[in-house]
Amino acid sequence: MSAAPSVTRGTPGPRSNALAERAAKVIPGGVNSPVRAFRSVGEPPLFVAAGRGAYLETADGAEVVDYIGSWGPAILGHAHPNVVDAVARAAARGLSFGASTAAEVAFAERLCRLHPALEGGMVRLVNSGTEATMSALRLARGATGRNKIVKMDGGYHGHADALLAAAGSGAATLGLPGSAGVPEGAVADTVVVPYNDAAALEDVFERFGDEIAAIIVEPVAGNMGCIPPEPGYLEGMRSLCDRNGAVLVFDEVMTGFRLALGGAAERFGVRPDLVCLGKIAGGGMPLGAYGGRRDLMAHLAPEGPVYQAGTLSGNPLAVAAGDTTLEILAADPPYEALRRTTERLAEGIETAAREAGIAVRVQRCESMWTVFFTDRPVRNYADAKATDTDAFARFHRAMLARGVLLPPSAFEACFVSVAHGDTEVERTLEAARGAFTEMTS
Ligand code: HOZ
User: Fold this and answer.
1) Pick from 67, 94, 195, 242: CA 20 to 30 A from residue 270's CA?
2) What is the span of the domain harbouring residue 429?
3) 306 pLDDT exceeds 90?
4) How far apart are CA 207 and CA 71, in angstroms?
């Protein structure tokens, strides 16, 4: 794929639409994950043929600048040659053994070196972020002997039953407050509080302090759009957990190795008891991980009574992709450059919106960002829901028509990769100027 694409109109065309028609007959909603249906932006789903660097090639042959980045993993850009090569070499040695390998030990050691929550602790590999959060909470409950968990309104931690209460991401996109099929009992011990509301957390601990096993939080919310924590918020959470004997779980599936090598824990200087990882940790392959304090992790079977298992856990291909990705990131950390690129995008988009007379706030943290159509700060899910999501949908369509792919929901984050350079920034800002002009005409 060239750096200067020839066909840029990314709007799904005849080939994508034909695939969507076939898919709808055999896959519910035509997609394997709801947000991919593009429903909230009023487009048919986009089918991808390939990805390289900052670009995706669509089924219709357009090359679009991609800010979905596989929903976060593609920090090195798509199909980084070293990562692809590592996966190919691992594949040649066998796809899956259901037994331990040297590579997974080295990978676990690397994770423990890089993430502050794992320093001196332990980590367990699983297959997805959903598995990581679900297992971390089982562990927190098993270790404390308590049942209640506290999550944030609009926080999304995958699709385990107990966490599908007031969830963000696809549930927010489709306006689903919970999910059918989740028994009341499964969420009876899930307490939901607004994000960035320290008083609400204090209140919950006042009422249920000795029943609360854990707080689970995306330290930078990324599934209600990008909403950074207010100063002192994460620190307050840390001290509430300490005072009440609850386990602090950072869901760093999105932020791990994205905000910094040590994720949000490093970026904000707050160390959780347990951390959940995925996305970048798997280098684009299906991999999750959870870990942290050694005394907590010792409760896991076969050492202890908390059970969790998986045939594909520590899969050699996923480990190869994750380990190579982290090796590249650690050798030459790109975080300063990613921040600068994101800053240029955010400021450029805000300027373009202002010039068009459209109220927009681009909220960001390092290389995560979201365009909110509002003139007010967005601090939590209620604020995010109050933004103009119809305007977002129009903007999304106009950007895609100009060759820039944003996540197809007002409640998701965009991701910048090291492959997004000047050309891609310029192209994105030019598209934004065109899109805002179209929206006002
Ligand atoms: N839940 C993901 C976004 N936060 C979407 C996953 C996907 O559709 O691939």
Assistant:
1) 67
2) 14-66+336-440
3) yes
4) 36
Q: Tell me which residue has its CA closest to atom 4 in ligand 1.
A: 169
- My answer on whether 204 and 161 are in the same domain is yes
pLDDT at 6: 54
- State yes or no: pLDDT of 5 exceeds 80: no
- Whether 340 has a pLDDT exceeding 60, the answer reads yes
**Whether pTM exceeds 0.90:** yes
Q: Would you give the DSSP letter of residue 229?
A: P
* Residues β-bridged to residue 50: 57
Looking at 302, 331, 360, the residue that finishes a domain is 331
Catalytically active residues, by annotation: 156, 251, 279
Instruction: Please give the distance of CA 81 from its chain centroid, rounded to a whole number.
Output: 23
Q: How far is the CA of 34 from the centre of ligand 1 (A)?
A: 8
End-to-end, the C-alpha distance of the chain in Å comes to 34
* In a shared domain, residues 144 and 107: yes
Same domain, residue pair 296 and 234? yes
Give the binding-site residues of ligand 1, using a 6 Å CB cut-off: 33, 35-36, 71, 169-170, 223, 412
At 88, list the tokens.
């190919």
Q: Which ligand 1 atom is nearest residue 222's CA?
A: 4
The answer to the question of residue 2 being in a domain is: no
CB 67 within 8 A of CB 435: no
Residue 71 domain-assigned? no
Tell me if 73 is assigned to some domain. Answer: no
> How many folded domains does the chain comprise?
2
pLDDT tens readout for residues 73-96:
999 999 999 999 999 999 999 999
Residues 193 and 294 placed together within one structural domain of the fold: yes
253 Cα to the center of ligand 1, angstroms: 12
7 pLDDT band (50/70/90 cuts)? low
Taking Cα atoms as reference points, which of 225, 163, 255, 279 lies closest to residue 409? 225
Q: In what order do the strands lie in the sheet with 48-52?
A: 48-52, 55-58, 63-66, 404-405
Gyration radius of the chain over CA positions: 21
CA of 170 to the centre of ligand 1 (A): 7
- Of 158, 189, 152, nearest to 171 by C-alpha is 158
In a domain, 1, yes or no: no
Question: Relative to the CA of 223, which ligand 1 atom is closest?
Answer: 4
Q: Among residues 331, 354, 382, which one ends one of the domains?
A: 331
